[in-house]
Write a structure and sequence with these properties.
Elements: E1 9-13, H1 17-29, E2 34-37, H2 45-48, E3 59-62, E4 65-68, H3 70-77, H4 93-107, H5 111-116, H6 129-138, H7 147-170, H8 188-201, H9 218-236, E5 242-243, H10 246-254, H11 270-275, E6 282-287, E7 296-303, E8 307-314, E9 317-324, E10 328-332
Parallel strand pairs: 1-2, 2-5, 4-9
Antiparallel strand pairs: 1-3, 3-4, 6-7, 6-10, 7-8, 8-9
């Protein structure tokens, strides 16, 4: 197998806030990649070619291993190009804890939902019935996504986001440091903390200036601007990514080697024990928060307390699809061979 740093890195994305988490990371570490641009709403036939029903973006492949969920993607990218400085917190257990807790704050605490609810109802995309149907499908069970629902939820959403901005202003950024961990440059902790605020602060009319602004919270807004300047400078130092179409992307993936050796199924895992799961068995995999109606089927390759890997058909080849255990459900799929 070739070293992982020699395998092609391919990012399926659409320039969304979640996609930017990965784009920023790649730029800050100077890692080259190929991109396959995706439509804003379903269907996404480029991913269906890989046997993938998962509807969230971005998705990243390293060779013939495909990774779902930006949290797992960031973890995997940290192991590439060891000659380049990593962005993860390595200094102290406290730094690693802060990094993880900022990830939880952004994704698991409800902050993402509150930021979405700050989107002004008059935005053009919120007048598009196709976009509204697509996002209602994505966010089913999490929130009602209509202009009327967003307007009704806005006051509480303002308060939730304001509390987070105030928290950053008065704690991690209170001493005037440039980056949340006091590092020389942005770390993954900064990416975890900044991406939602970076997104919503750029949407005209989303943040009420009498509640959330650079005047009221100068450290936070200076940090957001500093992060953008730093990323923009990093992007100028690397070549722009090559853009390929879906057929080209699939060919790049299926003609590559695997990034990781094939793992095992942990027989002591509670879900494995409960369901009697075995390596090679057909299973179904899906996220439990958003996009949960879109489930992937494949042969179970490996599973432990951190990650599950299934094998899906990509034409005449196979790819391995990786997902984190946190936020995903796995179960036996009896109709797998039909």
């Amino acid at each position: 197998m070739s070293p992982a740093s020699e395998l092609p890195i391919l990012l399926y994305h659409l320039g969304s806030p979640l996609s930017k988490r990965i784009i920023w990371y790649l730029a800050l570490r100077g890692i080259p990649y190929i991109q396959c641009m995706q439509p804003r709403i379903l269907p996404r036939p480029d991913l269906a070619r890989l046997g993938i029903n998962y509807r969230r973006i971005p998705i990243l492949s390293i060779g013939r291993d495909v990774y779902l969920d930006t949290r797992l993607i960031l973890q995997k990218l940290e192991h590439l190009h060891p000659s380049k400085p990593r962005l993860a917190a390595l200094a102290t257990p406290e730094h690693r804890a802060i990094e993880h807790l900022l990830e939880v704050l952004a994704i698991d605490s409800g902050l993402f939902k509150s930021v979405v609810q700050l989107m002004p109802a008059h935005l053009p995309q919120l007048q598009d019935p196709a976009f509204l149907r697509d996002r209602a499908d994505l966010l089913e069970g999490m929130m009602v996504f209509t202009p009327e629902a967003l307007t009704a939820a806005r006051p509480n959403a303002i308060n939730e986001v304001k509390n987070v901005v105030e928290f950053l202003e008065t704690t991690l950024l209170a001493d005037g440091r440039d980056w949340v961990l006091g590092t020389h440059g942005p770390s993954i902790a900064d990416i975890e903390a900044v991406w939602l605020l970076h997104w919503i602060s750029a949407v005209p009319g989303a943040l009420p200036p009498d509640q959330i602004s650079g005047v009221l919270y100068p450290r936070v807004f200076s940090w957001i601007e500093r992060f953008q300047r730093t990323v923009s400078s990093a992007e100028k130092l690397i070549s722009a990514p090559q853009t390929v179409d879906g057929e080209q992307a699939m060919e790049i993936i299926v003609t590559s080697l695997f990034n990781e050796t094939e793992g095992l199924v942990d027989e002591n895992d509670p879900v494995v024990k409960q369901q009697g799961l075995e390596k090679g068995q057909f299973v179904q995999l899906w996220p439990t928060d958003s996009g949960s109606r879109h489930k992937d089927n494949g042969k179970l390759v490996s599973m432990d307390n951190k990650e599950v890997v299934i094998e899906t058909a990509a034409g005449d080849a196979v790819v391995r699809v990786h997902a984190p255990r946190h936020g995903f459900q796995v179960c036996a799929f009896e109709d797998g061979e039909k």
